[in-house]
Specification:
By secondary structure, this protein is of the alpha/beta class. Among the domains are: 28 residues, no CATH class; 61 residues, no CATH class; 86 residues, no CATH class. It is built from three helices and 13 strands. The strands form four sheets. A six-stranded mixed sheet has the order 6-7-8-9-10-11, with no helix packed on it.
């Protein structure tokens, strides 16, 4: 035995097969219609969970909306088997509001904290294990505080960076060749003349060059190490001369 109220028509008009609730048949008032497998609202508001009509042509949902899930975790929770899941709205009752995308147990959370006035991009592991956030894994650049990436650099930051440690692991230069027996150390009198003339050490960029071009941390660290090693050789040589002079004084 079939149940329900069938509405059927062989007509091709727009109202064929329609089941319409309307305030006034002769006017353009708001109507609510089921037609050809579709649910439509002519104009005005469609509200759930409230009797307040404050706006027009909008959908008002008071409470939580779940798609393919019985107990939605936030304002909008969409879950599809075999596909990524989506949660939008306040998460776990905290002060962070945002949008979360996740698969089986890992995902990405993007949102803002009204208490801390911060925006968040956070990788998420639903098992609470540490997770990794990867940016532009297939190439491209990342910029912070600017929309113009620097040519040849993956990360461009307009402003300062504070961190606990920087480790350079690729193409690390080494200046231990300074201690090779065939290394030519500039005599001190030539070094003095160079400093008086140029106002900086040999091989070290001038203040103007630093301001115009900046410098590479790896290359600069190597350059400073080389200068320290050369300074050590100067000190060793001076110590030898001092001992030689002291020996000559003692013989007198």
């Amino acid at each position: 035995m079939s149940r329900g109220v069938p509405v059927a028509s062989s007509s091709s008009s727009i109202n064929s097969g329609a089941f319409t609730f309307k305030y006034n048949l002769s006017s353009e008032d708001t109507y609510f219609r089921f037609q050809n497998g579709h649910l439509s609202l002519s104009k005005g508001n469609f509200t759930m969970g409230t009797s307040s009509f404050l706006d027009q042509n909008r959908l008002f949902l008071y409470g939580r909306l779940g798609v393919d899930i019985q107990n939605p975790l936030s304002k909008i929770h969409v879950q599809a088997e075999g596909n990524p899941n989506f949660i939008e709205g306040q998460i776990n009752g905290t002060s962070m509001h945002g949008f979360q995308i996740y698969g089986t147990d890992q995902g990405l959370y993007m949102g803002v904290s009204t208490a801390q006035r911060l925006a968040y991009i956070q990788s998420v592991d639903l098992n609470t294990a540490p997770s990794t956030l990867t940016l532009n894994a297939r190439g491209g650049n990342v910029t912070i505080g600017t929309t113009s990436p620097q040519q040849g650099y993956r990360l461009s930051v307009n402003g300062g960076i504070i961190c606990e440690e920087i480790k350079i692991i690729l193409d690390v230069p080494a200046s231990d060749y300074v201690f090779a027996t065939d290394y030519s150390l500039m005599p001190l009198d030539e070094l003095e003349l160079f400093i008086k003339t140029n106002k900086h050490l040999p091989e070290v960029p001038s203040a103007v060059e630093f301001a115009e071009n900046g410098y590479s941390i790896g290359k600069m660290d190597d350059l400073l190490l080389r200068k320290v090693e050369e300074l050590s050789l100067y000190v060793i040589e001076l110590q030898k001369q001092i001992l030689e002079l002291q020996s000559q004084i003692n013989l007198k």
